[in-house]
Amino acid sequence: MKRIRTIAALVFVSGLLAVSCAGDAGMTPVDYVNPYMGNISHLLVPTYPTVHLPNSMLRVYPERADYAADKVKGLPLIVTSHRGKSAFNLSFFQGEADSPDPVYWYHYDNEKVTPYKYSVSFEEEAVDAEFAPSWHSAVYRLVFDADNGAPSIVFNTAKGQLRYEDGAVKGYQTVQDETKVYIWAEPSEKVTLSREYLRNGGNYVVLSFGPEVSELCIRYGVSFIDENQAKANLDAEIQGFDLDAVAREGRKIWNSTLGKVRLGRGSDEDKTVFYTSLYRTYERMICLSEYGRYYSAFDGKVHEDEEPFYTDDWVWDTYRAVHPLRVILEPEKEVDMINSYARMSSQMEDKWMPTFPEVTGDSRRMNSNHAVAFVADAMSKGLTGFDVDSLYAYCRDGIVEKTLAPWSAAKGGELSAFYWKHGYIPALHDSEPETLPEVHHFEKRQPVAVTLGTAYDQWCLSILADGAGDHEAARNFEQGSLNYRTIWNRDTRFFHPKDKDGNFIMPFDYARAGGLGARNAYGENNGWVYRWDVQHNVADLVSLMGGPEQFTEELDRMFATPLGSGKYEFYSQLPDHTGNVGQFSMANEPSLHIPYLYNYAGAPWKTQKRIHTLMDQWFRNDLMGVPGDEDGGGMSAFVVFSMLGFYPVTPGLPMYVIGSPFFERASLDLGDGRSFTVECENFAPENKYIQSAELDGEPLDRCWFTHEELMKGGKLRFVMGSRPNKDWASSSVPPSFAIR
C-alpha cells in the first residue's frame, strides 16, 4: 500500500499521551518552550515568537520590529518567508468609519505566545484576540466590548486583490514575481455590510456586523495554488470555529514532536533553553504540499505529487547542525527534504542545486554551495530513498558551472576559472577596483571564505561522486578539498587573502581588515573565525598549526584576544561578528564547531569547560537570550546538540564529537522501539567535566562516537566531576579526513 506522504499525516498524532519530564509533574515538553527567548536582538535581527505546527506552511508572529516595539501591525495571517512580513493583514475597529484604515496599529498587553496558540489584549480598543493554527489554515477569535459599538474587520493585501463573495473573503497577494498566496476566510457571524477600497497596488475589504455581535471568529485557509485550494485546505483541517479544539490538537502535535527527546533532572532554565531551541529547528523547512498538489516557484507550475515538497532553507546556516539533527530525530522527513532539493534543481533551467531555496525560488545568498554538505551527510549516515546520481549531478554542476562569487546566480566567469586553475579565489588590494561582473557590488569576493567553503564542498562532492560511481572525479574532488592550503600563511598561521600573482595582501590585520563585514577577505566574520574553517580535515589543520600543543594554545589565544577597538568601532565594521568571547563570535554560524576543536588536540576537558561557559554566557531564558541572528534553526541546533553532550563537527563524516551534557539524563527516540540515552553519574551544574565514560556498558576512552553506535540505540554513560580529568580521551582524537 502506498505510504501516505503529507505533512499532516506524518505528524498528526491525536492520541498522544502526555510526555512528562522527570521531576516536573504535569509539565510537558511544549510547556517549556518560550518563543520570546531572543526577541530583543543584541545588534541585528531578533528571533520572532512564531506560532505554527512543525515545518508547516502556515506560520505567523506578531508583526513588529521586536518585543520592545510599542505597537503591533494588525493581526498576521501568513508569513511566507522566514523573518518576513505577513501576507494579508487582519485588523478590526468598532463604531462608524466612513473610510476605515487599511491596517491598524495597536498597543498590546497581556500577550501570551506558545507554539500552538497566540493570545493578546488591546487595551485601548478593549478587544481580546486569540489565534490557533493548523497546517494550511487557522482560526482567530475576537471578543469585543459591546459598549463600543458594532464591530468591523478589515482584510488587507498590499499587492493583490481581495473580494467578499458568497460569505467568504477570497483573493490573493503577489509575494514576488509569479508567486502568489491565496486566502479563503469565513466569519462566524452574519455580515451586515461589506465594502472594498483600493490601496497602493492592492485593496482591502471591510466586513461589518450587527451591534449584538460581541464575539467573532474567523476561520481561514491559505494556498500557493489558488483560492479554491485554500478553501479545500480549510475544510480538510478546520470544520467549524472551535479555536480551543484547534489549539488542543496543535499542543498534542508539538508534544509528539518535542517529545522525541525526553529530559531527566536539570534546571527549569536549561530545559526551557533546550526545548525552545528544539522548537526553533522546526520552523524551517516548510512543507508546501497541499493534499497531493504543490506550487513550485522554481518552474512556476502546480504539480500533482503525493511526495511532500519542502522549501525555505538558508542552507549556509542549516547544513551545520539542523540537517544533522533531523537525520537523527526525523530521518524520513530529511529524506523528503533531500528529494525536494532534487525536484527544485530539476525544475530550474540550469539544473543547479539551490543554495537558499525559498517559497519564491532560489535566492542564491551567502557564499559557497553547502547543500552538497547535508546530502553527503545523509549518505554517509546511511539514509536512502533518494537518487544519488541525479543529486550528484545537481550538486556538481551547481559548484563547477555556477560562479563561485557570493550572492550570485551567474554562470562561472573569470573568478571561478581562476579558482579551478589555481585553487584559490584571488583577493584585491585596497586600492584595486573590482572589474568582474560576476562579483556582487556589496558582497564582494569574500576570497578566503569562498576558498575554504569550496574546498569543503569539494570534499562533500567526493562522497557523492563515489556514491554515484564516478570514482575518478571523487579522487579529483578529494584532492581539490585540500585547496585551503593554498592560502595558509605559514608565518602567521592564519588563512590569508592572496592576490592573483600569489602574494599575500600586506599589511593585514586579521581582526579588522577586509572592509564592511570583512567581505574583501572573509565573510561576516574576521580572520580569527575563518582560521578554523576546515571542518573536513581538522587533523591537517592541527598539523599546519604546528601540532596539538600549538593548536590548543592558538584556540586559547582566540578566546583571550580582545577586540582591539571600542565595541562601536568594531561592530560598525563587523555587525554579524557578535556574541564575542575575545575574537570568537558565538553569534555567527562559522563559529559553531570551534569550541569542539580542543578534542582534536587531545584536550577534551577544554571543550567541556568552554561549552558550558558559552551556553551560560549567551543562551538564556530571557528576551536577549540569543546572541545573534537565529536563521531558522542554525544556532538553535547547536544549542540542542551541545546540551545533549555531543556535536556533528563535520557534516559528511558519520560521527559526533563529545562535549559536556547539561542534564542527568536525555533520551532520544529513534523510532522502531530504539532509543539512545546520555546519562550522567554525579550530575550537578558544577560537575561539567567528564571523569570517565561507558558506551553500552563498555569503557569509552575516546571523545567521539559513530552515527552507527548512536542509531542502534543504547546508553552513553558519563561519570562527572567538578575538576577536569585531563587524561580522559586525551590520546584518541576524533577521526578526520585523509587522502585515500
Description:
- The structure is a single chain.
- By secondary structure, the protein is α+β, with helices and mostly antiparallel strands.
- 27% of the residues lie in helices and 23% in strands.
- It contains 19 helices and 36 strands.
- Helix 6 crosses helix 7 and helix 8 (371-380) packs parallel to helix 11.
- The longest helix has 21 residues, at 447-467.
- Residues 1-23 have low confidence and may be disordered.
Keywords for this structure?
36 strands, 740 residues, 8-stranded antiparallel beta sheet, 23% strand, alpha+beta, disordered N terminus, 6-stranded mixed beta sheet, 19 helices
Poorly predicted regions = 1-23
Reading side by side through the largest sheet, how are the strands ordered? 7-8-9-10-17-14-13-12
Q: For the CA atoms, what is the radius of gyration?
A: 26 Å
Task: Kindly name the structural category.
Answer: alpha+beta
Task: Choose one word for the global shape.
Answer: globular
Ends apart, CA distance between termini: 43 Å
Q: What multimeric state do the chains show?
A: single chain
Q: How much beta, percentage-wise?
A: 15-25%
The biggest beta sheet, please? 8 strands, antiparallel
Taking all residues together, what is the mean pLDDT? 95
Report the helical percentage. Answer: 25-40%
Number of helices: 19
Please tally the β strands and state the result. 36
